[in-house]
Known about the structure:
Chain A is an all-alpha fold.
Amino acid sequence: MNSSSTKLIVQSVIFLILQVVIFRNIALLDVTFCFIYVAIILLLPLEMDRILILVIAFIIGLIIDMFYNSFGVHTSASVLLAFLRFYWGNIITPQGGYEINISPNLKTMGFQWFSTYFLPMLFVHHFTLFFTEAGGFFLFWFTLLKVIMSTFFTFLVILLIQILFFSRKRGI
Amino acid sequence: MGRLFLLLFKYRATLVFVLLEILSLWMILSTDLFISASAFNSSNRFVANTIRYSNTIHTYFGLTDLNQELVDENAKLKQEIKSLKQSIYDINTLRVDDDEIISQYEYQDAKVINNTTQWLNNYITIDKGSVNGISPGMGVVNQYGIVGKIQSVSKHYSVLASLLHNDVLVSSKIKRTGTLGTTNWGGKNPQLADLKYIPRHITPLVGDTVVTSGYNAVFPEDIPVGIIESVVLKDDKNFNDIKIKLENDFTKLSYLYVIKNKLKVEKDSIESVNYTLAPNE
């Protein structure tokens, strides 16, 4: 147990608590939601064991589902995200590859890579989430609006948290 | 055989992924199973407590409105008692003496600790459970009208499917005409619901009141559901398309009453006996 993994665990617990206590109650204009717990899965080191990531995503999804009373909806979206994350990370590998065992956050990777990594992943997660929740493609445009608005809102919140608490000067 | 294992090992991450995904899809498909298992939803004690603490602050700011609502309700109830007292001599001859009928419905107050309106299937968590005699299937109302049905119960908490849940159907009638229909939420706007199965030959008017029918044993008769907002009759449809504006503002529920119907078992059992006998006649 080194200091970086302790940091990750503390960060994950904080994100989970924030999600459950604060962001669960937020729904702007009835269509904009925030799921910052997704960042827990996305911020795990890219070289981490894939099975471990899948299991972590499954457990996090289960916990969130308990609080949202939506059985399996968050779980399936999180597991899918954890699976696709590996391939997407490979596709957008920067020149010279990744450093070993670092959390892919704003500080270490820079804004451009960070947003190319996060935005599509958030979109996939929210897309799966809202359409499984709707139980199909009826109400298509309404659900798509939810997906897009929530993707940008979640990204904005994650970005703000990164800038405020993980910036170069302060660290955590 | 060795190569097979090698192959499986190579794709172990994908296999785990497929396995977990199937598991969660199974959870989605058997939602009914999980909603009645209170360990997996917000009537779980740990989850409910967390939610309750996080809501304490929110509740505090709503106290002024809440007081006003309670005072209004008190005034209304007083008015009702007054008018009943005035007419008591007229109805004296018709009074029912059966104690069980008179005290058929018992009301249990409860506080909302979690509530959503934005999903397609919305649930409300309340702070009363099996200790207070609540069991699944009971109806829940507040001073404005119906709220939902109890889905799952733990020792101190219960989760109810709110009226804003696609599987909740409420047997209702239009008060003016007495026509029987079914209220179901359309899934979009937390203020509007659909009133289904009102036949062509009835012409409902905008502004008609919709109340519960009392035909199922969940809700007593004449509890407000909503007011008709729009009526459309298409040429090729057998039924009117009716939108009703719900009496309740589901975004700000605070205190609810769970209705215990003491005669529910009796009513349900005699009905089921009749249904099973019918084909043999």
